[in-house]
Design a protein that fits this description.
The chain has 440 residues and is mainly α. It is built from 17 helices and six strands. Helix 16 crosses helix 17. Pfam families: EIIC-GAT.
Protein backbone atom coordinates (compact mmCIF):
# COMPACT_ATOMS: atom_id res chain seq x y z
CA UNK A 1 0.00 0.00 0.00
CA UNK A 2 1.46 3.37 -1.03
CA UNK A 3 1.79 6.18 1.49
CA UNK A 4 -0.86 8.17 -0.43
CA UNK A 5 -3.33 5.30 -0.19
CA UNK A 6 -2.51 4.81 3.48
CA UNK A 7 -3.02 8.51 4.17
CA UNK A 8 -6.38 8.35 2.37
CA UNK A 9 -7.38 5.42 4.59
CA UNK A 10 -6.29 7.30 7.71
CA UNK A 11 -8.24 10.37 6.63
CA UNK A 12 -11.43 8.30 6.65
CA UNK A 13 -11.38 8.61 10.44
CA UNK A 14 -11.89 6.05 13.20
CA UNK A 15 -15.63 5.61 12.62
CA UNK A 16 -14.95 4.34 9.06
CA UNK A 17 -11.52 2.75 9.51
CA UNK A 18 -12.52 0.58 12.45
CA UNK A 19 -15.59 -1.07 10.84
CA UNK A 20 -13.47 -1.98 7.80
CA UNK A 21 -10.72 -3.41 9.98
CA UNK A 22 -13.25 -5.29 12.17
CA UNK A 23 -14.94 -6.70 9.04
CA UNK A 24 -11.66 -7.93 7.51
CA UNK A 25 -10.41 -9.26 10.85
CA UNK A 26 -13.67 -11.16 11.38
CA UNK A 27 -13.35 -12.77 7.94
CA UNK A 28 -9.77 -13.83 8.75
CA UNK A 29 -11.08 -15.47 11.91
CA UNK A 30 -13.53 -17.52 9.84
CA UNK A 31 -16.66 -15.52 10.67
CA UNK A 32 -19.47 -15.71 8.13
CA UNK A 33 -19.70 -12.77 5.72
CA UNK A 34 -23.04 -11.57 7.09
CA UNK A 35 -21.92 -11.75 10.72
CA UNK A 36 -18.63 -10.01 9.92
CA UNK A 37 -20.51 -7.19 8.19
CA UNK A 38 -22.93 -6.78 11.10
CA UNK A 39 -20.07 -6.77 13.61
CA UNK A 40 -18.15 -4.10 11.70
CA UNK A 41 -21.17 -1.89 11.16
CA UNK A 42 -22.35 -2.22 14.77
CA UNK A 43 -18.94 -1.07 16.00
CA UNK A 44 -18.94 1.78 13.47
CA UNK A 45 -22.43 2.92 14.49
CA UNK A 46 -21.41 2.72 18.14
CA UNK A 47 -18.45 5.00 17.43
CA UNK A 48 -20.63 7.45 15.53
CA UNK A 49 -23.03 7.54 18.48
CA UNK A 50 -20.18 7.92 20.96
CA UNK A 51 -18.70 10.79 18.97
CA UNK A 52 -22.11 12.49 18.83
CA UNK A 53 -22.33 12.32 22.62
CA UNK A 54 -18.77 13.63 23.03
CA UNK A 55 -19.53 16.42 20.54
CA UNK A 56 -22.61 17.29 22.61
CA UNK A 57 -20.42 17.57 25.70
CA UNK A 58 -17.72 19.52 23.83
CA UNK A 59 -20.16 22.02 22.34
CA UNK A 60 -21.66 22.53 25.81
CA UNK A 61 -18.55 22.65 28.00
CA UNK A 62 -16.30 24.54 25.58
CA UNK A 63 -18.34 27.78 25.55
CA UNK A 64 -18.97 27.46 29.30
CA UNK A 65 -15.22 27.22 29.95
CA UNK A 66 -14.58 30.22 27.72
CA UNK A 67 -17.29 32.18 29.52
CA UNK A 68 -15.71 31.34 32.89
CA UNK A 69 -12.30 32.52 31.68
CA UNK A 70 -13.74 35.80 30.40
CA UNK A 71 -15.85 36.32 33.50
CA UNK A 72 -12.96 35.92 35.94
CA UNK A 73 -10.32 37.55 33.68
CA UNK A 74 -8.03 34.53 33.68
CA UNK A 75 -4.70 35.36 32.03
CA UNK A 76 -3.94 32.27 29.91
CA UNK A 77 -2.34 32.82 26.51
CA UNK A 78 -2.19 29.30 25.00
CA UNK A 79 -5.34 27.65 23.66
CA UNK A 80 -5.98 23.93 24.07
CA UNK A 81 -7.04 23.03 20.51
CA UNK A 82 -8.40 19.56 21.38
CA UNK A 83 -7.56 16.08 20.13
CA UNK A 84 -9.26 16.26 16.70
CA UNK A 85 -6.97 19.11 15.68
CA UNK A 86 -3.94 17.51 17.38
CA UNK A 87 -4.47 14.22 15.56
CA UNK A 88 -4.80 16.04 12.24
CA UNK A 89 -1.53 17.85 12.90
CA UNK A 90 0.19 14.60 13.93
CA UNK A 91 -0.83 12.72 10.80
CA UNK A 92 -0.16 15.79 8.66
CA UNK A 93 3.58 16.00 9.37
CA UNK A 94 6.33 14.32 7.34
CA UNK A 95 6.47 11.49 9.88
CA UNK A 96 2.76 11.11 10.47
CA UNK A 97 1.68 8.64 7.80
CA UNK A 98 4.65 6.37 8.59
CA UNK A 99 3.40 5.74 12.14
CA UNK A 100 0.80 3.15 11.11
CA UNK A 101 3.04 0.83 9.03
CA UNK A 102 5.80 1.04 11.66
CA UNK A 103 3.36 0.17 14.45
CA UNK A 104 1.73 -2.66 12.50
CA UNK A 105 5.13 -4.16 11.73
CA UNK A 106 6.25 -3.99 15.36
CA UNK A 107 2.98 -5.54 16.57
CA UNK A 108 3.42 -8.44 14.11
CA UNK A 109 7.02 -9.08 15.22
CA UNK A 110 6.13 -8.91 18.92
CA UNK A 111 3.26 -11.36 18.44
CA UNK A 112 5.46 -13.68 16.35
CA UNK A 113 8.06 -13.97 19.10
CA UNK A 114 5.53 -14.04 21.95
CA UNK A 115 6.64 -10.66 23.32
CA UNK A 116 3.12 -9.29 23.58
CA UNK A 117 -0.35 -10.73 24.02
CA UNK A 118 -1.99 -7.72 22.36
CA UNK A 119 -3.22 -7.66 18.77
CA UNK A 120 -4.08 -4.02 18.25
CA UNK A 121 -6.88 -3.34 15.77
CA UNK A 122 -7.33 0.26 16.93
CA UNK A 123 -5.07 1.38 14.08
CA UNK A 124 -6.35 4.94 13.76
CA UNK A 125 -5.16 5.83 17.26
CA UNK A 126 -1.54 5.37 16.27
CA UNK A 127 -1.74 9.15 15.77
CA UNK A 128 -0.54 9.35 19.39
CA UNK A 129 2.84 7.84 18.48
CA UNK A 130 2.94 10.04 15.38
CA UNK A 131 2.52 12.96 17.78
CA UNK A 132 5.56 12.15 19.93
CA UNK A 133 7.67 11.26 16.90
CA UNK A 134 6.79 14.57 15.25
CA UNK A 135 7.52 16.47 18.49
CA UNK A 136 11.00 14.99 18.71
CA UNK A 137 11.57 15.70 15.01
CA UNK A 138 10.46 19.32 15.49
CA UNK A 139 12.87 19.64 18.41
CA UNK A 140 15.94 17.92 16.94
CA UNK A 141 15.39 18.21 13.17
CA UNK A 142 16.49 14.54 13.03
CA UNK A 143 14.02 12.58 10.90
CA UNK A 144 15.55 9.20 11.80
CA UNK A 145 15.27 10.00 15.51
CA UNK A 146 11.61 10.87 14.98
CA UNK A 147 11.04 7.44 13.40
CA UNK A 148 12.93 5.77 16.26
CA UNK A 149 10.75 7.63 18.76
CA UNK A 150 7.62 6.28 17.06
CA UNK A 151 8.98 2.72 17.27
CA UNK A 152 9.92 3.04 20.96
CA UNK A 153 6.56 4.62 21.84
CA UNK A 154 4.84 1.64 20.21
CA UNK A 155 6.80 -0.70 22.51
CA UNK A 156 5.71 1.36 25.53
CA UNK A 157 2.01 1.17 24.71
CA UNK A 158 2.15 -2.60 24.14
CA UNK A 159 3.83 -3.02 27.51
CA UNK A 160 1.09 -0.95 29.14
CA UNK A 161 -1.63 -2.85 27.26
CA UNK A 162 -0.33 -6.22 28.49
CA UNK A 163 -0.08 -4.94 32.06
CA UNK A 164 -3.57 -3.42 31.98
CA UNK A 165 -5.50 -6.39 30.60
CA UNK A 166 -6.10 -8.24 33.91
CA UNK A 167 -7.27 -5.02 35.62
CA UNK A 168 -9.62 -4.28 32.73
CA UNK A 169 -11.19 -7.73 32.88
CA UNK A 170 -11.51 -7.69 36.67
CA UNK A 171 -13.23 -4.30 36.83
CA UNK A 172 -14.97 -3.64 33.51
CA UNK A 173 -15.62 -7.31 32.73
CA UNK A 174 -14.12 -7.10 29.23
CA UNK A 175 -12.59 -10.49 28.50
CA UNK A 176 -9.64 -10.72 26.07
CA UNK A 177 -9.74 -6.94 25.50
CA UNK A 178 -7.14 -4.33 26.41
CA UNK A 179 -6.39 -0.71 25.56
CA UNK A 180 -3.06 0.17 23.90
CA UNK A 181 -4.31 3.75 23.83
CA UNK A 182 -1.40 6.14 24.28
CA UNK A 183 -3.50 8.90 25.88
CA UNK A 184 -5.19 6.62 28.42
CA UNK A 185 -2.78 3.81 29.32
CA UNK A 186 0.03 5.97 30.81
CA UNK A 187 -2.16 6.98 33.77
CA UNK A 188 -1.85 3.36 34.96
CA UNK A 189 1.78 4.01 35.96
CA UNK A 190 0.68 6.78 38.32
CA UNK A 191 -2.44 5.03 39.62
CA UNK A 192 -0.67 1.84 40.77
CA UNK A 193 1.78 3.44 43.23
CA UNK A 194 -0.80 6.00 44.37
CA UNK A 195 -3.25 3.21 45.18
CA UNK A 196 -0.64 1.68 47.48
CA UNK A 197 -0.13 5.11 49.12
CA UNK A 198 -3.88 5.65 49.56
CA UNK A 199 -4.14 2.23 51.24
CA UNK A 200 -1.83 3.53 53.99
CA UNK A 201 -3.67 6.80 54.69
CA UNK A 202 -6.03 6.46 57.68
CA UNK A 203 -9.59 7.34 56.78
CA UNK A 204 -8.98 7.33 53.05
CA UNK A 205 -8.15 3.62 53.08
CA UNK A 206 -11.60 2.85 54.50
CA UNK A 207 -13.59 5.26 52.36
CA UNK A 208 -15.98 3.57 49.94
CA UNK A 209 -16.67 5.95 47.05
CA UNK A 210 -17.74 3.83 44.09
CA UNK A 211 -20.84 5.00 42.17
CA UNK A 212 -22.80 2.17 43.81
CA UNK A 213 -21.65 3.14 47.30
CA UNK A 214 -22.38 6.82 46.67
CA UNK A 215 -25.85 6.07 45.34
CA UNK A 216 -26.54 3.78 48.30
CA UNK A 217 -25.46 6.50 50.73
CA UNK A 218 -27.07 9.49 49.02
CA UNK A 219 -29.95 7.77 47.23
CA UNK A 220 -31.47 9.89 44.47
CA UNK A 221 -28.65 12.47 44.67
CA UNK A 222 -26.04 9.76 44.10
CA UNK A 223 -27.45 8.72 40.73
CA UNK A 224 -25.01 9.46 37.89
CA UNK A 225 -27.66 11.22 35.81
CA UNK A 226 -28.52 13.50 38.73
CA UNK A 227 -24.83 14.12 39.42
CA UNK A 228 -24.29 15.14 35.78
CA UNK A 229 -27.25 17.48 35.93
CA UNK A 230 -26.07 19.11 39.18
CA UNK A 231 -22.54 19.57 37.80
CA UNK A 232 -24.01 21.18 34.69
CA UNK A 233 -25.90 23.63 36.91
CA UNK A 234 -22.74 24.49 38.86
CA UNK A 235 -20.65 25.02 35.72
CA UNK A 236 -23.41 27.16 34.20
CA UNK A 237 -23.53 29.34 37.30
CA UNK A 238 -19.73 29.72 37.34
CA UNK A 239 -19.86 30.71 33.67
CA UNK A 240 -22.40 33.44 34.49
CA UNK A 241 -25.06 31.91 32.25
CA UNK A 242 -28.67 33.05 32.50
CA UNK A 243 -31.31 30.66 33.84
CA UNK A 244 -32.23 29.27 30.42
CA UNK A 245 -28.66 28.54 29.32
CA UNK A 246 -27.77 27.08 32.73
CA UNK A 247 -30.72 24.69 32.64
CA UNK A 248 -29.90 23.65 29.07
CA UNK A 249 -26.29 22.90 30.06
CA UNK A 250 -27.53 20.89 33.06
CA UNK A 251 -29.82 18.75 30.90
CA UNK A 252 -27.06 18.16 28.34
CA UNK A 253 -24.52 17.04 30.94
CA UNK A 254 -27.13 14.79 32.52
CA UNK A 255 -27.93 13.37 29.08
CA UNK A 256 -24.27 12.55 28.46
CA UNK A 257 -24.13 10.35 31.56
CA UNK A 258 -27.20 8.45 30.33
CA UNK A 259 -26.37 8.20 26.63
CA UNK A 260 -22.65 7.41 26.68
CA UNK A 261 -22.99 4.02 28.43
CA UNK A 262 -25.60 3.03 25.85
CA UNK A 263 -23.23 3.85 22.99
CA UNK A 264 -20.47 1.83 24.66
CA UNK A 265 -22.81 -1.15 25.03
CA UNK A 266 -23.48 -0.93 21.28
CA UNK A 267 -19.74 -1.03 20.62
CA UNK A 268 -19.41 -4.11 22.81
CA UNK A 269 -22.28 -5.78 20.99
CA UNK A 270 -20.21 -5.68 17.82
CA UNK A 271 -16.90 -6.56 19.49
CA UNK A 272 -17.92 -9.49 21.70
CA UNK A 273 -18.27 -12.12 18.92
CA UNK A 274 -14.98 -10.98 17.36
CA UNK A 275 -13.17 -11.19 20.67
CA UNK A 276 -14.53 -14.68 21.28
CA UNK A 277 -13.61 -15.85 17.77
CA UNK A 278 -10.06 -14.52 18.19
CA UNK A 279 -9.71 -16.23 21.55
CA UNK A 280 -10.91 -19.56 20.10
CA UNK A 281 -8.47 -19.30 17.18
CA UNK A 282 -5.50 -18.62 19.46
CA UNK A 283 -6.42 -21.57 21.68
CA UNK A 284 -6.54 -23.86 18.63
CA UNK A 285 -3.32 -22.68 16.97
CA UNK A 286 -1.27 -21.61 20.00
CA UNK A 287 -2.29 -23.71 23.01
CA UNK A 288 -1.40 -22.04 26.27
CA UNK A 289 -1.15 -18.52 24.81
CA UNK A 290 -3.59 -15.71 25.52
CA UNK A 291 -4.55 -12.99 23.05
CA UNK A 292 -5.91 -9.58 23.92
CA UNK A 293 -7.70 -7.53 21.29
CA UNK A 294 -6.39 -3.97 21.45
CA UNK A 295 -9.23 -1.46 21.28
CA UNK A 296 -9.97 2.23 21.79
CA UNK A 297 -10.36 3.15 25.46
CA UNK A 298 -13.68 4.72 24.42
CA UNK A 299 -15.12 1.40 25.62
CA UNK A 300 -14.49 2.55 29.20
CA UNK A 301 -15.62 6.18 29.12
CA UNK A 302 -19.28 5.32 29.51
CA UNK A 303 -18.73 3.73 32.89
CA UNK A 304 -20.45 5.72 35.69
CA UNK A 305 -17.25 6.01 37.76
CA UNK A 306 -15.27 7.31 34.76
CA UNK A 307 -17.93 9.82 33.72
CA UNK A 308 -18.63 11.07 37.24
CA UNK A 309 -14.95 11.62 38.01
CA UNK A 310 -14.39 13.25 34.61
CA UNK A 311 -17.19 15.76 35.02
CA UNK A 312 -15.94 16.65 38.49
CA UNK A 313 -12.49 17.16 36.96
CA UNK A 314 -13.77 19.87 34.59
CA UNK A 315 -13.94 22.67 37.22
CA UNK A 316 -10.86 21.23 38.97
CA UNK A 317 -8.86 21.36 35.71
CA UNK A 318 -9.89 24.96 35.08
CA UNK A 319 -8.97 25.87 38.66
CA UNK A 320 -5.58 24.19 38.29
CA UNK A 321 -4.94 26.09 35.06
CA UNK A 322 -5.52 29.37 36.88
CA UNK A 323 -3.71 28.76 40.17
CA UNK A 324 -0.63 26.87 38.98
CA UNK A 325 2.22 29.36 38.56
CA UNK A 326 3.84 29.21 35.14
CA UNK A 327 0.96 27.47 33.36
CA UNK A 328 -0.15 29.26 30.19
CA UNK A 329 -2.59 26.69 28.76
CA UNK A 330 -6.32 27.38 28.78
CA UNK A 331 -8.12 23.98 28.88
CA UNK A 332 -10.74 24.20 26.17
CA UNK A 333 -10.93 21.71 23.32
CA UNK A 334 -10.12 18.67 25.44
CA UNK A 335 -12.29 19.38 28.48
CA UNK A 336 -14.88 16.95 27.13
CA UNK A 337 -12.22 14.31 26.53
CA UNK A 338 -10.87 14.28 30.08
CA UNK A 339 -12.43 10.80 30.46
CA UNK A 340 -9.82 9.44 28.05
CA UNK A 341 -6.96 10.75 30.20
CA UNK A 342 -8.16 9.22 33.47
CA UNK A 343 -10.38 6.26 32.48
CA UNK A 344 -7.71 3.60 33.11
CA UNK A 345 -7.08 4.88 36.62
CA UNK A 346 -10.57 3.78 37.57
CA UNK A 347 -10.00 -0.01 37.46
CA UNK A 348 -6.85 0.39 39.56
CA UNK A 349 -8.87 2.26 42.21
CA UNK A 350 -11.77 -0.21 41.81
CA UNK A 351 -14.16 2.60 40.89
CA UNK A 352 -13.37 4.74 43.93
CA UNK A 353 -14.22 8.25 42.71
CA UNK A 354 -12.38 10.04 45.54
CA UNK A 355 -9.13 8.21 44.82
CA UNK A 356 -9.59 8.83 41.11
CA UNK A 357 -10.10 12.55 41.68
CA UNK A 358 -7.01 12.85 43.89
CA UNK A 359 -4.84 11.00 41.36
CA UNK A 360 -6.35 12.85 38.40
CA UNK A 361 -5.68 16.21 40.05
CA UNK A 362 -1.99 15.33 40.41
CA UNK A 363 -1.91 13.93 36.87
CA UNK A 364 -3.57 16.93 35.20
CA UNK A 365 -1.63 19.41 37.33
CA UNK A 366 1.71 18.03 36.13
CA UNK A 367 0.23 17.61 32.65
CA UNK A 368 -0.55 21.31 32.34
CA UNK A 369 3.15 22.07 32.80
CA UNK A 370 4.05 19.52 30.10
CA UNK A 371 1.44 21.06 27.78
CA UNK A 372 2.87 24.52 28.48
CA UNK A 373 6.43 23.33 27.79
CA UNK A 374 5.59 21.74 24.41
CA UNK A 375 3.59 24.76 23.20
CA UNK A 376 6.35 26.08 20.86
CA UNK A 377 6.93 22.57 19.45
CA UNK A 378 3.26 21.90 18.77
CA UNK A 379 2.89 25.33 17.21
CA UNK A 380 5.83 24.55 14.90
CA UNK A 381 4.28 21.15 14.06
CA UNK A 382 1.00 22.84 13.14
CA UNK A 383 2.79 25.24 10.81
CA UNK A 384 4.75 22.38 9.20
CA UNK A 385 1.47 20.52 8.59
CA UNK A 386 -0.14 23.67 7.09
CA UNK A 387 -2.76 23.54 9.84
CA UNK A 388 -5.22 26.44 10.03
CA UNK A 389 -4.38 28.11 13.36
CA UNK A 390 -7.61 30.17 13.24
CA UNK A 391 -5.78 33.28 14.41
CA UNK A 392 -4.15 31.66 17.46
CA UNK A 393 -0.42 32.30 17.84
CA UNK A 394 0.20 29.72 20.61
CA UNK A 395 -1.50 26.32 20.71
CA UNK A 396 -1.24 23.23 22.86
CA UNK A 397 -3.37 20.23 23.78
CA UNK A 398 -4.27 18.16 26.84
CA UNK A 399 -4.56 15.05 24.64
CA UNK A 400 -1.63 14.27 24.24
CA UNK A 401 0.14 17.36 25.52
CA UNK A 402 -0.62 16.66 29.18
CA UNK A 403 0.38 12.96 29.09
CA UNK A 404 3.58 12.12 30.99
CA UNK A 405 4.96 9.98 28.16
CA UNK A 406 5.01 13.12 26.00
CA UNK A 407 7.17 14.84 28.60
CA UNK A 408 9.51 11.85 28.92
CA UNK A 409 10.01 11.40 25.18
CA UNK A 410 10.44 15.10 24.49
CA UNK A 411 12.60 15.66 27.58
CA UNK A 412 14.98 12.76 27.06
CA UNK A 413 15.02 13.40 23.32
CA UNK A 414 16.16 16.95 23.99
CA UNK A 415 18.66 16.15 26.76
CA UNK A 416 20.17 12.87 25.55
CA UNK A 417 19.04 12.62 21.93
CA UNK A 418 19.32 9.02 20.64
CA UNK A 419 20.60 7.78 24.00
CA UNK A 420 17.53 9.12 25.80
CA UNK A 421 14.99 7.55 23.46
CA UNK A 422 17.07 4.36 23.40
CA UNK A 423 16.94 4.19 27.20
CA UNK A 424 13.14 4.28 27.09
CA UNK A 425 13.22 1.56 24.43
CA UNK A 426 15.41 -0.69 26.57
CA UNK A 427 13.07 -0.24 29.52
CA UNK A 428 9.99 -1.03 27.41
CA UNK A 429 11.58 -4.06 25.74
CA UNK A 430 12.79 -5.37 29.09
CA UNK A 431 9.28 -4.94 30.48
CA UNK A 432 7.72 -6.84 27.58
CA UNK A 433 10.29 -9.62 28.00
CA UNK A 434 9.56 -9.87 31.72
CA UNK A 435 5.77 -9.79 31.41
CA UNK A 436 5.51 -12.24 28.51
CA UNK A 437 8.51 -14.55 28.89
CA UNK A 438 9.33 -14.78 32.56
CA UNK A 439 6.19 -13.78 34.45
CA UNK A 440 3.59 -16.35 33.45
Amino acid sequence: MSLQALQWFVDLGASVMLPIIIFLFALLLGTKLKNAFYAGMTVGIGFVGLNLVIDLLTSSLGPAAEAMVNRFNFDLHTIDIGWPATSAISYGTALGSLAIPIALGINFILLLFGLTKTLNIDVWNYWHVAFTGSLVYAMTNDFALGLFTIAVHVLVIFLLADLLAPEIENYFGYKQITFPHAASAPSYFLAKPLDAVFDRIPGLNKLEASPEAIQKRFGFLGDSMVLGTVLGLIIGLLAGYNVTDTMQLAVKTGAVLVLMPKMVSLLMEGLNPISQAASDMIKRRFPGRDLYIGMDSALTVGHPAVLSASLLMVPITLLLAVVLPGNTVLPFGDLATLPFLICLMVPVFRGNIIRTLLAATIYIGVGLYIATWITPLLTDMAMAADFDMEGYTRISSLVDGAVWTTGIFAGLGKLLNWYGIGLIGLFAFGGLLYVNKIKK
